[in-house]
Amino acid sequence: MKTKVLLPLLLLVSSCISSTALAEDKPTGSGPNPFSDCGIGAALFPNTDWAAVTSNIIWDIGTTAVTSATASPETCNGKSVATAQYIHRTYDTLVEDVAKGEGEYLSAAFDLVGCAGNDQAAASVSLRQQIATELTSNSYSQKSAIEKSSNFYDALHASVAANCISSINS
Amino acid sequence: MKSITLLLLFFAIFHSNAASSAINDVAKSAIEKKLAYQSRWLKIGHYDLVEEKHIQFKSDVISSNFFLSARGQFDPEAELKATIDQIFAPIPDNPNLHAQCRFPARYLWLKKQLNFNDEPKVECGEFDRFTIGKTVSSISIVLATGFLGNPASYYGHTLIKFNSSLEGKSQLLDETLNYGAILPRDPNPIIYIVKGVFGGYEGGFSNIQFYFHDYHYGDNELRDIWEYELQLTPDEVSMITAHAWELVGKKFRYYFFKKNCGYQTANLINAVTDIDLDPKNPLYSIPQAMILRAAAINDKGKKLINKISYYPSRQSRLYKKYGKLKKPHKQLVRSLVSNVEKYQDTQYQVLSDSEKAAINEVLIDYHHFVAKKNQRSPNQDGYKKALSELFDLPSSGSNFDATTELIRSPHISRKPSLIQFNGIANESNAGFSVRVRPAYYDPLDADNGHVKHAALSMMDAEIEYFHGNLQVKALDLISIVQTNHAATFLPDDRGDSWRLKAGLKKQDIDCESCLVARIEGSKGYSSHVSENMLASVYLGGALQDQKNNNGHGFLNNIYNISYQREKISFQLEYEKRYHLNGYKNIENLARLESRYAITKNLDARVRIEHYNDTQIAFGLGIYF
Questions:
Q1: Scanning B17, B66, B197, B410, which has its CA 20 to 30 A from the CA of B486?
Q2: Could you tell me if B557 lies within 8 Å of chain A, comparing CB atoms?
Q3: Residue B229: enclosing H or E segment and its boundaries?
Q4: What integer pLDDT is reported at residue B590 of this predicted model?
């Protein structure tokens, strides 16, 4: 039984049991996509009311919330969810870095998935091609924020799998 | 078999006795050394001396899970004994619950003081993750500049960043620790203010990776961020990191003026080191004041601030990049904002790749900035077109050169509070006045970290001795002038400005017993006349208490010119009031004030005011 837990905004995600199980139709080594494969779905990505998340205010400082009760223990771990959160929270700036071909946010995305610095340039080229194709598709404007983030997640992992020797699949 | 069992039982009892003996020895040594009442232990436990019946100490921490003893919040000795006991306790199934993992700073300090080594060796996985595998090598204080869009953010915000030395790792993924009030969603504004001021809310520490704050402040709230990396010893770095972990998820009573983010950040660092960043103002803590104090610390030639980094907001990046464009390219940006078809024009097509990249980066920043400023979605066509153009160009980042911005760092700003002594005179009389402004700035003295040509002050009071009378001339409980500078003049980069003031004010320059309570507000438009001069016009009004038949309020229009440079600034203002009732019908007011900064924390001002009479004042101001 899935237990839906609302993830507090400002918390690190604790680890679930990691696994090498792969979702179907995913590039080799890309691992599960937390947006669709972790049994958590949108619960991890509540609509962030940015206007409310102001400097001196925190909404909840409870303990870390994502446990094996909320995620399929065979498919997800804390790293993959942390990467997914990162993509979702910074999507616009991340895509802009991809468009430029470089940037701090793009570097951080590669760091999260374990792609070393000297492999990042090649991975960036591959990622750039994929995102450019996605951006020019007719359906892009109709996609939800989560769908866009999910596609970015897949594209990131595909680029890393093809170009990064030292990647650790999350 | 029986003898082996007996032997095992003997060793178990012996080991248990030995362990128990070790704990007793350690505890006895702690008592003999009076560690429970040493400054460091009291600070780690956030204990204050109190004058309450039967209680000598009380910890500021209100979370019960911060204490290992049931009496821990009020009894530092009981807490110390319980901590020693738990340090030596067996390792549970989840080792992260062991006292060594929950309270690493206490553990490190006690180990150093008491020199024990018989405790179990515990692997603290969660704490290791927080320290990114023990790679935290330095600590920074991060300051987000003030934000006039939310009262809780007026004075800026500080948090702590733990910098990992892991090679190649992005600093966006460094851990941070942030202190803030814990609020319900959509609080009632009046309750929000009252509770925030008088401790009606809990505050707490939370951790998240730095990217969250960089994106949130820079892109959502359009605030600049400054990072001040501290020069610390490895021990100091370890202890601050360990104590930060002890405080994650722990709660305090939140007080907006005093025990806020600046206070708690300084307190955390001082709990485990001798570095004291608290400016020790009994009434309030201002985040920038903490940074000024850090900048002033220079221990035998060793400065506390080691390195400064600047993270420009989306707005700052836009203005900087736009400012660097050549004039024809600025015009091209303007036409592309209005009509994406202009991308087909020859004027754009003949540009080099780098010129196209620069123009499209400006457009991307522009669409984002305008969307956030006006709280709506970005222009999808314009934004998407600019983005797709960038994808078509060779990879090239136009890096923002922050080095030239370091002269604007808040750490070299003047001090936040002002006391001013004025000689005042009109045609027939002379006197003097004293003004005290606890915080923060006005259009003449807005400095690094403040909004130029804007104003933010609370409890700004001026008392005068004039005509043989000592009386309050003005008391601004709050005074805000928010100006938007519209640096690009692009569509929607508007100079929307507003003002709000509430307090007491004399009805006329030269009257007695004429103090009225008044609240006034206005909305307007500002535009740069030159780089250092801003012109503004406002429409608004005020409500006031009826006194001396002066009426219940008025409508007004205000014309203002503000000029500000590093040393010299002036402001000229004309106001026309249309009284709703009372004996006055239309009233004309004028004010000219100029300022000269003698030193960073000393200035001289001349003020000429006219409302029903004319008065001139010469003043000397000291910032503290």
A1: B410
A2: no
A3: strand B225-230
A4: 96
- Compute the mean pLDDT over every residue in chain B, rounded to the nearest whole number: 90
Chain A within 8 Å of B429 (Cβ-Cβ)?
no
| Residues B349, A111: Cα–Cα separation, whole Å | 37
- pLDDT mean over B542-567: 92
Quick one: pLDDT band at residue A55, thresholds 50, 70, 90? very low
- What pLDDT was estimated at residue A56? 41
- CB < 8 Å to A68, chain B: none
Answer whether B428 touches A (CB < 8 Å). no
Render pLDDT for B518-533 as a digit per residue (tens, 0 to 9). 999 999 999 888 889 9
Looking at this protein, which amino acid is placed at residue B258?
K
Are B219 and A125 inside 8 Å of each other by CB? no
What is the DSSP code string of B380-405? HHHHHHHHHHHHHSPP-------GGG
Please tell me the pTM assigned to this model.
Answer: 0.86
Residues B343-353: what's their mean pLDDT?
A: 93
Name the token pair of B540.
Answer: 């608004």
Give the strand pairing for B553-564 and B568-579.
Answer: antiparallel
Q: Residue B177 carries which side chain, given as an amino acid letter?
A: L
Using omega within 30 degrees of 0 as the cis cutoff, is the peptide bond preceding B440 cis? yes
Per-residue pLDDT tens over the stretch B4-50: 777 777 666 666 666 677 788 899 999 999 999 999 999 999 999 88
- Over range A36-46, report the average pLDDT: 51
Please, are residues A89 and A32 in contact by the beta-carbon 8 Å criterion? no
Cβ contact (<8 Å) for A102 and B397? yes
B90 touches A: beta carbon within 8 Å: no
Residues of B with CB below 8 A from A142's CB? none
Q: Cβ of A145 under 8 Å from any chain B Cβ?
A: no
Q: For A142, name the nearest residue in chain B, comparing CA atoms only.
A: B380
Report chain B residues whose CB lies below 8 A from the CB of A101: 394-397
Q: Do residues A84 and A34 lie in contact, with contact meaning Cβ atoms separated by under 8 Å?
A: yes
Per-residue three-class SS string for A83-104: HHHHHHHCHHHHHHHHHHCCCH
Taking the CA of residue B259 as centre, how many other CA atoms within 13 Å lie in the half-sphere pointing to its CB?
19
**C-beta of residue B364 within 8 angstroms of C-beta of residue B389:** no
| Rounded distance between C-alpha atoms, residue A113 and residue B321, angstroms | 32
Q: What pLDDT digit, counting tens, does each position of B139-150 carry?
A: 999 999 887 777
Q: Mind listing the pLDDT tens digit for each residue in B438-459?
A: 989 999 998 888 888 999 998 9
CA distance B307 to B305: 6
CB-based contact A61 B249, cutoff 8 Å? yes
Buried residues in B400-428 as b, exposed as e (16+ CB within 10 A): eeeeebeebbbbbbbbbbbebebebebee
What are the angstrom distances between the C-alpha of A8 and each of A47, A61, B429?
12, 7, 64
Report the pLDDT value the prediction gives residue B547, as an integer from 0 to 100: 83
- DSSP string covering B82-146: HHHHHHTSPP-SSGGGSHHHH-HHHHHHHHHHH----SPP---HHHHHHTTTTTEEEEEEEEEPP
**Which residues of A are less than 8 Å from B219 in CB distance?**
92-93
- The answer on pLDDT for B309 being more than 60 is yes
d(CA B324, CA B334): 15
Q: Which of B390, B396, B398 to mutate to test the interface with A (most CBs of A within 10 A)?
A: B390
> Within 13 Å, how many C-alpha atoms sit on residue A101's CB side?
14
Is pLDDT of B323 > 70? Answer: yes
Which sign, positive or negative, has the C-alpha torsion B559, B565, B567, B568? negative
Q: Read off the pLDDT of each residue in B576-598 and give the average, rounded to a whole number.
A: 93
Give the tokens for residue B408: 């604007």
Helices A117-135 + A91-100 axis angle, to 10: 100
Closest by Cβ to A100, choosing from B183, B204, B396:
B396
